[in-house]
Input
Amino acid sequence: MTQTITVIRGDGIGPEIMDATLHVLDTMDVGLQYEFADAGLVALEKHGELLPQATMDSIRKNRIALKSPLTTPVGEGFSSINVELRKRFDLYANVRPAKSFPNTKSRFPTGVDLITVRENTEGAYIGEGQTVSEDGEVAMLTQKVTRRGSERIVRYAFDLARKTGRKKVTVVHKANILKSTSGLFLKTARAVATEYPDIECNEMIVDNTCMQLVMRPEQFDIIVTTNLFGDIISDLCAGLVGGLGLAPGANIGTDAAIFEAVHGTAPDIAGQGKANPCALLLGAAQMLDHLGQPEKASRLRAAIIATLEAKDSLTPDLGGSGNTMSFAKAIAGRI
Ligand code: NAI
Output
């Protein structure tokens, strides 16, 4: 069966890593057809809008998008196109795996295999109700956490544990201080956890979590947390295992899902063929899992690992002298 996906090539290094990723997918017999759509700076230049209606319609129709990083120009409407996409499609679950890979100059070349499940639609991160007093002395924002939002993200984390054979969910919070917002999240998480007696559940305060992640990351399996904590923790986790060039992310809702690399458009290396395509490739692997093709997703991940192990055509960020497409071809050759 053929599945059409929306493909957003994006800005900066976006087109380079997308071409590399599609090259690998094309060697895999995954039954995908691509519908290309624009967003970001390239869309502003071509269509006069950062997020054209045609792109929204394409994602709504196909329900699956593979997206390269986008530039949100300062002072052009949205604070972030990515946040806007999450809001418009109610992509409530941000799922970011962090796994040790060989030959990545990382602090933990082995032992880390965890997933951060971050609530993606509420909390301080979305910046609701931001004001600054006239004299510029006082700044405020509203932080809203709901039982519904907490329940669905915690449920997502436990369901993911069951689906992927993982054993433990750690609920990360700051309920000792933020008794209302973090308190509601924790209380809701405890209630949901009782429905999953087969999955171990523990609780950890966010500051301690950061220290534990740096010292003993192997103790974590799935972390579930609110939006802002998840934003910070997932980057910390990417740093444990070799940086942004290897960090994928999925934004998942009931009606649509968008798969991407966590990193940005890397303007400093754009157009030079230096970009590491692995983060977007790993995002594509998450997409294959989501599309019910886990064996293909595993093959893709295994080919990436084998290419890293062989140090074949690695990009400069990994200490190699290959380029984006030669690296992708080396991966494709191992599938
Ligand atoms: P960045 O992630 O683009 O770059 C940070 C550093 O990491 C740079 O030195 C860059 O060269 C390097 N890097 C990033 N991805 C790499 C890759 N695949 N291979 C090798 N090196 C890589 O972050 P920065 O500089 O803060 O943001 C640049 C632009 O990207 C901004 O306009 C920002 O708004 C946008 N951005 C977009 C995101 C998205 O669309 N998902 C996420 C983050 C930032």
Summary: The chain has two domains: 1-96+244-335, 113-240. The pocket of NAI is lined by residues 13, 17, 69-72, 82, 244-245, 260, 263-269, 275-276, 279, 317 (CB under 6 Å). Residues 1-96+244-335 form a domain with the Isopropylmalate Dehydrogenase fold (CATH 3.40.718.10). The chain is about 40% helix and 20% strand.
